[in-house]
Amino acid sequence: NAKYFEGRTIRVTVLLDAGSEDSGQNVLAAAIQETVAKDTTGLVGRHKPVEISLVAVDASNNFSVEESVRKLFVSGKDNIPDIVVCLNENDTNSVYQAVVDYNEVGLVNILGYYDSDAILKGIERDVIYATLSVDTDQMGKYCIDALTEYYEIGNTSQYFTADSYVINKLNVAKYRKGESDD
User: Scanning 49, 81, 118, 132, which has its CA 20 to 30 A from the CA of 175?
Assistant: First the structure.
């Protein structure tokens, strides 16, 4: 599914929710930029240069998301990103559909979020390269534990981190069977 980047910059687009007041997506985007900048410094001979652009997506409704994503693909063949990083399920589904609609399967790699049936099918069909899934059952249990502690003690002093899984072509069948690997 990876495109051969013959001597040119790899273009990565990270989709961000334009209306979100959650600073988490901004922290994540900054961390991606920082990591790529750090990891590519001094590796020019072994590693193609990576250019990251942040694109604000109007997530006020499904049509707005689809329109924001469509703009990525109608701006000319030379401007279509090589990799699109999606930070939510809706963006992942919209990019998946756009890659199919604009005949960019195999040319645009999608790094998605969530494990809906549609997204898992996209991985099986080699349209979505990989997706990140959070163990929501575990997260729910941690929330109950924290609420119980808060109710009994008046505060909670722990930070709970739920497990997450990267799902790709190599492990999607196993994941569907409920045997997720870290």
Answer: 81
Query: What's the DSSP call for residue 99?
Result: H
Whether 75 and 143 map to the same domain: the answer is no
Strand partners, 111: 85, 130
Please identify which residue in the block is written with the tokens 């961390």.
31
Pairwise CA distance, residues 21 & 132, whole Å: 22
Cα 108 to Cα 54: distance, rounded to the nearest angstrom: 16
68, 141: one domain: no
Number of domains in the chain: 2
Domain that holds residue 147: 135-166
Report pLDDT digits (tens) over 111-135.
Answer: 999 999 999 999 999 999 999 998 8
The per-residue DSSP string of 117-141 comes to: HHHHHHHHTTSS-EEEEE-HHHHHH
Same domain, yes or no: 52 and 80: yes
pTM: 0.82
| Residue of 56, 51, 52 lying closest to 25 (CA atoms) | 56
Pairing of strands 10-17, 164-168: unpaired
Domain annotation covers residue 181: no
Is 31 strand, coil or helix? helix
Query: What pLDDT shows up at residue 9?
Result: 84
Residues 148 and 106 in one domain: no
Asked whether residue 153 falls in the same domain as residue 121, the answer is no
Q: What percentage of residues in the chain have a pLDDT greater than 90?
A: 49
